[in-house]
Batch of 2 targets.
Target 1
Amino acid sequence: MDKGSPRPVPGRLRAAWVALLATALAVLVAGCVTVPTSGHVQAVNVTQGNAGGGQYYLQPIPVAPGGNWTPEEIVSGFLAANASFANDHAVARQYLVPAASKNWHPGLAVTVFSQISSTPVPLPDGASGSHQTRTTTIVQVSGTVLGSLSNSGQYSTSSHSQGTTEEKFVLVQQGGRWRISSLPNEVLLSQSDFEHVYQPRNIYFFDPSEQTLVPDPIYVPEAATPTDLVEQLVRVVMASPTGWLRSAVQTAFPAGTTLLNVSLDGGTAVVNLGGAANGASDDALHQMSAQLLWTLAGSSADEPAIQSVELEINGGPWNAGQDNPVQQISDFSSYVPTGPAHASFYYTDSHGAVRSLSGSAQANAPQGAPVAGAAGAADIPLTQVAVSPDGRYVAGLGSAGLYTGTLTSKSTLSLRVDGNFGSLSWDLHDDVWAVQNGQVWLIPGRGGASLPVTTMLPAGEKVTALKVAPDGVRCAMLVSGASGTQLLLAAIVHSGEQAYIGPAVPISADNVNFTSLTWYDADDVVALRDPSGHPVLDEVAINGGNVTAFPAPPGITSITAYGPANPLVAGLSDGQMTTLATPNGLWSGNVAAGRSPAYPG
């Protein structure tokens, strides 16, 4: 597992398995300090909806401060109580003096440590070597930072993962008991605590065309009951997007919509809306239902397991023009692009012609068929190729630069931009995204001027590869800098004919030095690295969570994927290609001769 992983959930590519929840939170504070008995998990029986039976939900039960606890015990007890978000950290606030409690507003932001230790430190104005006076003391908390969770719920791996950080807590005596008077305005959690009190979810918003749903991968704190968690998710999807996606996506819920009630009836979430939703059109209500279904039912592995949604307006069911008001996610499947099974991938042969081959081809399969038009005739030899998701357009790299054309019998290839380029990627709008010496270019597939794209990266960092997600809004980038090559996630924002890439969030640790990447599905990227001559493929969760490594074939130079219904395809240095259906199996052996295989996109 990668050092920056906050949640060790197995990768989607691995065989499925169910992890059992631990029955108690791990010890939060290491070292000589004895941690007060706080933050244990208790199984609480709850009832899920009208038809739902009793269900056990594991909840952290924090412990209030003891009467004669030392300053170190007060700080460690406070940190343990941080794991409970109930009533705005009500128990944790008992460790604070009233003024500090009033000013402590951490929100959902969290700093995640691999291990935390507490030690007393000298007072700034005390005698030499003095750690405390009769009424005042300072306790320093230090640990290795793995990452942080923003208020919008996006987890980012830490750029300080090789070092430690220190936070100081000032304590005073009140009525003979130590309480915290000054503290960081954030929640500090150990990795094990974070894993137990947060769960990953996708919140779905619409792209600017309102035709495609874009997942915003976030972490949310566990609620007291399944209904509480569903209500929390509904409120997030109703609000305007925040975080790194805010300028690129939108919600279908009109401003002024109010949430009247949420209830669970078995596996159906009943969501009752009022306010501005009362005057919404059927099209808007259809989109709102799509957002709700994909947000609540799109992650079936998480609890609570929602299979359907019933949308109500002021208590009356909206039936979407159907007899049954209960809607299934299958009714809205077209909103989320997925790769079809048995898809073909594209590659170039030894003559520079573009060919296609089924991803289900076995070892020593017949050579693939040439594509239609100039790209398949090798009139202009190409060394790298990409085909648009709709299969209409092709882009390739030749000796003079980047070419585009259509995949029709009488098509030609047009030189669009001179020079050497790295990765190629198409989006849903039939635009090509390419990288040239750190500069990102946008090349309209239908014709028009090629545009340089601004990226909001720190000085000294440059993009070496970029792949657009199936939704056409998000992009994954390999960015090189002083600390190595890092995997970043960002949103594409269009403004008229121009476009820019917004602020990026890291989803891998520093110094990884990836060389190639591909989107596996909407939630995962597969990236190639070659430490010490032994290539490894990493499946990286977009929510900043687990990184699952699996062996790569010797000589691998590139990788492409098209969802779980299709095998991975690797290009090898000897001009051959090989496939892998699952990392639990074996690479197929050479399926054909060719370079730079690429599924559509």
Target 2
Amino acid sequence: MRKLCITITTVLIFLLCGVTLASAESMMLEYDGETHEYNGAVYSLVVKNQLIDPPLSPIIFNDRALVPVREIFEEVGATVNYVSETQTVEVIDDDSYVAMRINDNVAYINGDKTNIPDNVVPKLIAKVGGETKTMVPVRFISETIGLDVEFDSEDGAILIDSDGYTLAGGSVSDAPSYEEPAYEEPSYEEPAYEEPAIPYVTDVSYEAQSDSEIKVTIKTDSPMGAFTFFKLTSPERAVVDIAGARLSDLDDTLKVYEGGITTIRLGDNPERARVVIDTEKTIKDYNAEKISDDTIEVTVRTKENAPAAAAPQNNAAEAPGSAASEYGNEYNARPSSDKLIVLDAGHGGEDPGAIGYLNGNAVLEKTLTLQITNKVKTILENAGYTVSMTRTGDTLPSLTERPAQANAENAALFVSIHINSAEPASANGTEVFYASENNGSAYGVTSQQLAQNILDRMLYYMGSTNRGVKCAEHAVTRRCNMPASLAEVGFITNPTEVYNMTTDEYQQKAAQGIAEGIIITLRDITIPN
């Protein structure tokens, strides 16, 4: 506990004292996706009689001190982690664990939930043109853990475990007098927990539009959340999953035999309700649309089954967006139609993921991941494979819903696509992760092998730095039943890589590598009964 206390002390001192010992400083700061002008005081920070000089000066934010967490905490031997997937800052030493999420006023101290007062929250902040730093509210952490913090308003310094210290170069009495407002434990009463309302599917009806087209209407008794729809083959069927919904008292099978449809089957589990539309012919196209908060309309069109296509010739020309490569046409071999691929575009909705900047404009991870994932989907489908997406627009499936979808669909493999970030802008390269909790060989291929195949092919096309295959217990990969990996294409905080990743050409290279790594792996996968 003492080690962590010293760390927090360091943060406090640095924030209140100016790095340049000036009374005030004007600078342009970037945070929350915008540029802001800061005209405030900077202060010196003294820890155990040592002056700390971090790369980004502390600032006063809503009358509270924010300081760069990594340089200060690591100075005293604590470990600082930034988990980009959840935008969580972790400070760890032998006795303590503090976790805070960017722009969230809830913190966890050794597992206990605590509210940060005054709406002063951890933020990602950078000087324009400088490194992005994780800034945390120091007073909150220090008071929560119980540090002894002193403020020397005469010399414009914050002292942590320091006595009789004189700043190098003489007094800084010209620095503005600042005294951190006394922290008062907020009066907080945990709100009564209310079980979220569960939407129940109360009606499923259909109307044949023609001999080869049918419209299916799904209704719930209350507003529904996110839903996904996709096609499966062997046999042909269209599927709609409604997250968090359950079935009311409905028959589990409707016999149809109209509009090219044989039956409509219903089922549910604690995570979703499912509607399966079985067809007697090959599905030509299908679509599902939420027409109101409690109604989804599904349209399915079928076609006459075509004769089996001839096997491709070895000298066939490479088509744009295909999965052909220097390996010839082995990727165009007729795929096994019962091996479904689930692609997961990281983040989405209110979660932008990591944020980079290009020509002064913010670039969001959620946008890049969806663009690249769509390209992977196109390449795989052009090669004849069946693909399901966890999101097709700017939505935010939870970290539970994403792998749950793959498990419910009995997918052959699962690949999540992300963009990396790091405080040193020089960080660059490509890496692929797998979870040790999901690295068995029941499918004939391990998650580690999938990750290696994907990395090898990405490096071939992209020419990026090889950061290797790594093991990490990401929620979306460890919860999958099938081989699963998480690819970090590049660093959104690296000026060169963020530019590359916004170009269609580079995205196509990344997508081609991911697709080929998937196809190489898929050939050796056998889905267990």
